[in-house]
Every structure is written in structure tokens, then in C-alpha cells.
Automatic annotation (TrEMBL):
The keyword ATP-binding applies. The gene is ugpC. The chain holds residues 1 to 237 of 359 of the full protein. GO terms for cellular component: ATP-binding cassette (ABC) transporter complex, substrate-binding subunit-containing. This is sn-glycerol-3-phosphate ABC transporter ATP-binding protein UgpC. It comes from Pseudotabrizicola algicola. The keyword Nucleotide-binding applies. GO terms for biological process: carbohydrate transport. GO terms for molecular function: ABC-type transporter activity; ATP binding; ATP hydrolysis activity. Belongs to the ABC transporter superfamily. Residues 3-233 form the ABC transporter domain. Keywords: ATP-binding, Nucleotide-binding, Transport.
């Protein structure tokens, strides 16, 4: 497993947001965390990224327990729903920013940005500002910013929720193709069952801070563990 969670819990004050969360993310897999709004998906992703500390349990990345490792030393990249692009920077500057912060040589940054732009079809847009881009293009820049870091894993938090239905369908296919092309390992959070069923190798179904079931899309569809999973995934079962 490239990423492993063992008995992870999280409380804010005396409110238990997540309890006893254990699952593994195989290298190269596209794992989706799905569940209703408020069930703890973002909190879980933030703990894997290191932005939030677990109350209990252990999180390992590439065989190393990272509970006490700072986010910037976990070597994973996060893509958010609101893009979080810097409005005053160009596309190229946005994409290269994290490397600039690491004092990577300029020529190396330019090469990494050019490579990512080529993969994402952003080459003609490198000198534009975010305000001059469409929603889909901004989402590609956000992915480009993650790609240039060559992280061991990508974490996505509902990256398509601000896009219209048609673009969302197109971007699902793009993200999946990108994942394959990069040979990436990805954890993707969504509350959208269709997204989960069409994109995932492995689905982790969450409800109210607990795991209801883990399995491939067809497993969940054919053999839902309980009526919550059945109704959430949309099978008659
Ligand atoms: P999801 O992403 O599945 O919609 P979240 O992980 O954002 O859910 O939130 C899960 C629960 O934890 C919610 O009830 C939310 O209000 C609560 N929560 C999230 N972050 C904090 C925080 N920093 N302090 C207190 N409660 C929080
Ligand atoms: Mg969320």
C-alpha cells in the first residue's frame, strides 16, 4: 500500500468527526472517498495531507508513519474545488509557484511547467491571468500546479463541484486519463455517486464519520453491505 490508514480518528472538542478509519491505497490506484455532505471526507483528506492532525491512529505514506511529518515533507499534492489560484500571477507562475518556494533553479521550473502545460493543453495560455480563463481551464491549472511537483500521490477534494454538468463529465474523463498517463496514485473525494462509480478503482463509502464499505464499484453495486450503501450507490439491492 502506498498510503495506509490504521484506526484513524478525529475529534473537534468532544465532537467525533471520524472514528476508526482503516484502509489502504495501492500504488497506482484511483481511490474515491464518497459520502454525504458533512460525513468527514475533507477532514480525512486534510489529515492525509497533514493540514489536520489525527486524534488517534496512524497514517503511513510509502511505509513511513507520517503523523508527525509536516505537510511540505509528505510529498503529496492537493487539488481543491475552488482552485485557489493566485489572481495576480500568470498561469505559468501559478504552476511553478511551489517549485519557486523550494528554490528550484529557474530553468528547471520552466521545463517542469512546460511539460505539465503540454500534458494539460495549457501551453497557449501560460501568460494569461486566472481571470482570463474558463472554469475548466482554471481546473487544469490547479492540476498543473500539482503535477509540476511530481508528488508520490494526488489528493482531490471535490475538484469539479463548481463546474456545470457537461464540463464535469468531460473533466472526469480528463482526470482519469491524466492519472493513467502519469502512473499516479490518487485519492479523490466526492459526494457524487456517479463520479465514484465511473472513476474509481476502489471506493470507500463513509457515513457520519465511519466506513460503511470498501470495494470496487461493481462489488458495491452487486453486494452492498447494507441498505445505506445500496441506496447511496443506487442499486436496488
Ligand atoms: P465533508 O467534507 O464530508 O462534507 P467535513 O470533513 O468538511 O465533511 O466536515 C465533517 C464535520 O466536521 C462537519 O460536521 C464539520 O462541521 C466538522 N468540522 C470540520 N472542520 C472542523 C473544524 N475545524 N472545527 C470544528 N468542526 C469541524
Ligand atoms: Mg468536504
Amino acid at each position: 500500500m502506498l498510503i495506509n490508514l490504521d484506526g484513524v480518528s478525529k475529534a473537534f472538542g468532544n465532537y467525533d468527526v471520524l472514528r476508526d478509519i482503516s484502509f489502504g491505497v495501492p500504488k497506482g490506484s484511483f481511490t474515491i472517498l464518497v459520502g454525504p455532505s458533512g460525513c468527514g471526507k475533507s477532514t480525512l483528506l486534510r489529515m492525509i495531507a497533514g493540514i489536520e492532525d489525527p486524534t488517534g491512529g496512524t497514517i503511513s505514506i510509502a511505509g513511513r508513519v507520517v503523523n508527525d511529518v509536516e505537510p511540505k515533507h509528505r510529498d503529496i499534492a492537493m487539488v481543491f474545488q475552488n482552485y485557489a489560484l493566485y489572481p495576480h500571477m500568470t498561469v505559468a507562475q501559478n504552476m511553478g509557484f511551489s517549485l519557486t518556494m523550494r528554490a528550484t533553479p529557474k530553468a528547471e521550473i520552466a521545463a517542469a511547467v512546460a511539460r505539465a502545460a503540454d500534458i494539460l493543453g495549457l501551453t497557449p495560455l501560460l501568460d494569461r491571468k486566472p481571470s482570463e480563463l474558463s472554469g475548466g481551464q482554471r481546473q487544469r491549472v490547479a492540476m498543473g500546479r500539482a503535477i509540476v511537483r511530481e508528488p508520490v500521490a494526488f489528493l482531490f477534494d471535490e475538484p469539479l463541484s463548481n463546474l456545470d454538468a457537461q464540463l464535469r463529465g468531460q473533466m472526469r474523463a480528463e482526470i482519469r486519463a491524466l492519472h493513467r498517463r502519469l502512473g499516479a496514485t490518487s485519492i479523490y473525494v466526492t459526494h457524487d455517486q456517479v463520479e465514484a462509480m465511473t472513476m474509481a478503482d476502489q471506493i470507500v463509502v463513509l457515513r457520519a464519520g465511519r466506513i460503511e464499505q470498501i470495494g470496487a464499484p461493481l462489488d458495491l453495486y452487486d453486494r452492498p453491505a447494507n441498505s445505506f450503501v445500496a441506496s447511496f450507490i443506487g442499486s436496488p439491492g
